[in-house]
Design brief:
Mean pLDDT: 84
Structural class: mainly beta
Number of helices: 1
Largest sheet: 7 strands, antiparallel
Radius of gyration: 26 Å
Oligomer: single chain
Number of strands: 30
């Protein structure tokens, strides 16, 4: 005889998002205005660090390249803070090099193309813009020598902010033995010249070390790379806005190089699960990017809650994540739902072990199985166990709000899981 359990689910006043049926269970806050921040986030420890993002202009890679065996571009990247300090631009001067450093001509500077950091990988940067794998030893700012094992600079760049009224010419003199950065920076008229030296080995387990060209300060601002999965930050990319489309500073989410993301489009978080996700892993660091929100004509943000992400985090687990709201301005606050998408979400085997009906339901739920049921557990989308029972008799559960739960049923043949939706 089938064992039948009737579960009465009572609605409480907690409430769930009308659009997503997934509750907000975490958030990050970047701040805004004149003091924007970067937020480094871990699925294990949540916000790991919140650091100022308007006090640096250049970021030098401190990861190893391992010439000539490794990823050739891995350790030679130099990124530019064009998003955290709006108006900061990098351009490469035609025909400018070390030989004519003191007499470079900036005529036509504004007409030159702006060089941007890649949002597909950390390894390709504004200073290496145009790098081609077919010419693997030419990193644009310099070339690698198989004899000296140094990358020697051969181009001069101008880093400037027209609104703030400053212009700096930059020559990356060399990267010695994949260890020592040597950089010359001065005003275009050769005044205020400085020589920068950075030793990669002083910054272990980091991606970049940062430099303030105006105050001549080296800044160690990153948490160790093994401690975070996602980075909330500002960067320049091609974007669509109410004013039109083109290059624009955006607020987005980039991922740690050790993290991979899948983006599922067209279903909400209550409709797509680990077992039926539709997308392949996207290795791009901007797989999440900025377009989970859209700026509308009222200059507030509409959410694309049909973008669901599966994040392969550094702790070896996969998390389902959906952005539910974004508040710009001085808050810069993102609210989202995330939970570990493990066997508790996979119901392939469970459908043969027990039946749950109706599902979705409006408060009355029955579970039946040909096997002896010895225990039932309900877990909410925050990973919290909200009720356990030994499986005997009728169970009346109080305090459950509308939303999604994972029901775990312990039977004489094993433990099985199924998702349920309370509407």
């Amino acid at each position: 005889m089938k064992k039948i359990l009737t579960l009465t689910l009572i609605l409480t006043a907690f409430g769930f998002s009308a659009n997503a049926q997934c509750p907000v269970n975490d958030s990050t806050s970047m701040g805004g205005g004149l003091t924007p921040n970067d937020v480094f986030y871990s699925f294990t420890n949540h916000t790991v660090a919140t650091v100022l993002n308007n006090n640096w202009h250049m970021a030098f890679s401190v990861t190893g390249t391992d010439f000539p065996n490794g990823n050739y571009a891995n350790g030679v990247a130099i990124r530019v803070n064009s998003g955290g300090i709006p108006g900061t631009v990098l351009k490469k001067l035609n025909g400018a090099n070390a030989a004519n450093w003191r007499a470079i001509d900036t005529t036509g500077l504004y007409a030159l193309p702006q060089l941007l950091d890649s949002d597909s990988t950390w390894n390709l940067s504004a200073f290496t813009s145009g790098y081609k794998s077919s010419d693997i030893l030419n990193f644009i700012w310099g070339n690698y020598s198989m004899t000296s094992h140094n990358v020697t600079g051969n181009n001069v760049f101008v880093l400037y902010n027209k609104t703030a009224g400053w212009y700096k010419k930059v020559f990356i003199k060399s990267l010695d033995y994949d260890t020592i950065w040597n950089v010359v920076i001065s005003n275009v008229d050769n005044s205020d010249s400085s020589y920068l030296t950075i030793n990669k080995k002083s910054y272990t387990n980091k991606l970049f070390v940062y430099y303030d060209v105006l105050n001549k300060l080296v800044i160690d601002r990153e948490p160790v790379k093994s401690s975070w999965d996602l980075l909330w930050t500002k960067y320049v990319t091609y974007a669509v806005t109410p004013q039109g489309s083109g290059l624009s500073p955006v607020t987005g989410v980039l991922s740690n190089p050790a993290v991979k993301v899948e983006q599922n489009i067209g279903k909400r978080c209550s409709d797509v699960w680990l077992t039926n996700r539709t997308s392949a892993v996207d290795p791009s660091i901007s797989a999440m990017g900025h377009d989970w929100k859209m700026l509308n004509m009222s200059f507030t943000y509409d959410m694309r809650d049909s973008n669901v992400y599966f994040v392969h985090a550094q702790n070896g687990k996969i998390y389902e994540m959906t952005f539910l709201s974004y508040q710009g301005g001085s808050a810069g606050k993102s609210r989202f739902n995330m939970y570990e998408a493990t066997t508790g979400i996979s119901d392939i085997d469970a459908k043969y072990a027990f039946n749950v009906y109706p599902n979705p339901n409006n408060g009355l739920l029955s579970v039946e199985s040909d096997m002896v049921i010895s225990g039932i557990t309900f877990v909410d989308m925050q990973g919290k166990t909200v009720y356990t029972n030994n499986g005997a008799g009728t169970i009346d559960i109080s305090g459950l709000a509308n939303g999604i739960y994972v029901i775990t049923v312990q039977t004489s043949e094993g433990v099985y899981h199924r998702r349920i939706i309370k509407e």
